[in-house]
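Section 4.2 – Deliverable D4.2 (structural model, holo form)

The reporting period included a commitment to supply a predicted holo structure for the target in complex with shikimate-3-phosphate. Inputs used:
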Amino acid sequence: MTRIILIGYMGAGKTTLGKALAREMNLQFCDLDWYIEERYHRTVQQIFNEKGEDGFREIEKRMLHEVADFENIIISCGGGTPCFFDNMKFMNAKAQTIYLKATPEILCEHLKMSKTERPLLKNKTPEELIDFISGSLAKREPFYNQANYIFDISLLNSIDKITDSVHLIQNLLNNKAE
Ligand code: S3P
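Output (C-alpha cells):
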C-alpha cells in the first residue's frame, strides 16, 4: 500500500506535481483543499471569511484525518497543514511525507502563474509578497523539515520541467527504500 503526502509552502507545486506523480505511479490523487471544498460546499476563501483562520484549521485537521485513511494515493495538503496541531507528526505516522522545498523567489514566480485564490496572500503588492513569504517560510520550515524526504524544487514553468521533477521524486523515493 502506498500513501504519499506532499507538503510545502503555497506555490511550491504540491498540486501540479502531485497530479503528475499520481499519473506516473498509477495512484489516486487527492488535494486536501479541494476535498475540503467539496465536503463543505464552500471555497477555502469562503471558509476563511465565515469561520476565520482558526475555524479553517479545525476543519483542515478533521479532513486531513479523513483523507489519511485513503490507500494507494498521493495527497497534496495545504501550505499551512503541517504547521498546526500535531498534523506533521500525524502525517509522518500515516504516510511517506515529501517536503517540496522552494526559494521565496520560485514560490513568487509560481504564485504569479497560479489562478488559485489564496486568502493569506490577498491584496499584497509584489514587494510585500516576497517579504511576507520569506518571513512565514522561516517560521514554517521547522515543521516542513520534519518530512521523510526533502525535494528541492526548480522553477516549474514547462511540462518538461514537471516531468523531470516527477522522475527525480521517484528516484528519491526508490533510493531511500533500497
Ligand atoms: C494555506 C495554503 C493554501 C490553503 C489556505 C491556507 C497556507 O493551500 O490551504 O489558503 O496557510 O499556506 P496551498 O498551499 O495549496 O495554496
